[in-house]
Each structure stands twice: as structure tokens, then as C-alpha cells.
């Protein structure tokens, strides 16, 4: 409890004294001026504490980004001894979430370690894996963990008692850009569940398969933890970059988007790339890096 209170106090103190980066905020505002939809952005330089925000406290659908909170809830159960990180789980056909997920190709009765299910949930954004873990942990349990750690907006809605109206409005999960960035920062700082659990989560979050958005605008030799979330009318991404001159975190969230195509050239995907590139070159002004010519052909959907 003392650790939690200290964590919340330190975060609240840092937020209270955070200085707005007006120059960066202006650049971000210019980047989103003509966007066809609603957008929210929160950025913080973790070295200087300076922030930039546009609609950072507005609620948006998380889509698959909610899986980071499911991961935190899972690790909390492991920390308490109610689950084991490498315990074997038995897959059942009833767990299947129709789609192209890896876990959904398993046969009834196949076994898999819980640690591999968490990897599939985050790295591949496997929906069957995610819903399995949410069922094991419980949506109410995850939301209680979020509440106890000071989150006011970030919540699981789907398959969670009392969240039906929020599910109709926001889908699987809901958050503000600020709180998504805060969850990543807690994990980065070793303050989510425990230092050891945070380290385990961070190692998983830096192994993302879906790297054609924000990650494509960050050099491949620079480590970044991230999670993406997409549905027809809302596409978002949160990233924490271990940059040479200081780590920074940002969350770009959208809703009510007009361009709902599931292609690499849809407006929101390009906006997220644009914001990521802007931030990289803002914080690393001497970096001459840019995606290699021809890299786009490796990022197209089949």
C-alpha cells in the first residue's frame, strides 16, 4: 500500500509541475488540423517532464490497446500466486474468437503455457488469447486494479458486469490518451504490479509484430514499447520510445473517423506515422534517419 501511495503521489506531483511544451503542441495541432475525425494526443518527455496535449483527457475507444490492462491484471494475479507465469493451459474450442489469430488454429485439448498466451495477446494482438486471459482474470478484477492505481478513465467494457452502456459507446475498452500513456509510463518505471512484473511486461511490449504505423517512423535499432488498436471507426497507438537523448511516451487516439479503409494508406494510419516521425525528429533533431527507400512495399497488406 505504501508503494502504491508513493507511486500515485510521485505521478501526481510530476503531473502538477509538468511544463507544457508550447512549440511541440503547436506543431502537433498543425499536423491534425485537417484530420477527418476526432483525435486526441498526449506526449511526455520523460527526461524533462515537458508535455504536449490535444484532447488528452477526452474518452476514446481503445480497441486492442485495452490488452495492456489485461496484461497488467494477469501479472497482478501471478504476483499474488493465483496464476503461474508458465502454467499450462488447456485450449477449448469454445474460446475461439473468429478471425486469423494463431491461437484460434489450435485444436480442442491442445495445451499452451500462460506466458505464451500473454505473448500472443500483445505481440500478435491475438484476440482469442486476449479474451482467454480476460476470462481467467476477470474484467471486474482488471478494472479494480486500474481504479486502485489511480486510473479514472481506462477501463475494460466487454464481458464486464456494469460496463454494458460503455461497451455500446466505446467497444472493448475506453481510455483517454493521457491515461494510456500513463499506463505505459508506470510499466516503464517499474511501478505496475511490481518492479519484476513491470520488467516482464516491458519485455513483451517491445516485441510487436504490427510495426507499420508509429514504429515504422522510429529507427529499427531504437527500442520502443507499443500497442496498437483498430476498429472500423477508431484507430490508435501508444508508444514509449527509449530514445538516445531521453525516453518519451505518446498516445494518439481517434474516433468517428471518415476514412474507414483497412489499408496502409488510410488517413489515420498516415496520421499516426506523421505524428511519430514529427516526435522522433523533434526529440532527436540531429538524427538523419528516415525509413529506407522501398520499405513501403514490405508494409502493404496482402
UniProtKB/TrEMBL annotation:
Q: From which residue to which does the signal peptide run? A: 1-20
Q: Give the E.C. number(s).
A: 3.5.2.6
- Return the broad EC class: hydrolase
User: Which is a GO BP term held by this UniProt record?
Assistant: response to antibiotic
User: What keywords are assigned to this protein?
Assistant: Hydrolase, Signal
The record's listing under Gene3D superfamilies reads:
DD-peptidase/beta-lactamase superfamily
The record places domain Beta-lactamase class A catalytic at 40-254
Q: Which family does it belong to?
A: Belongs to the class-A beta-lactamase family.
Tell me the protein's name: beta-lactamase
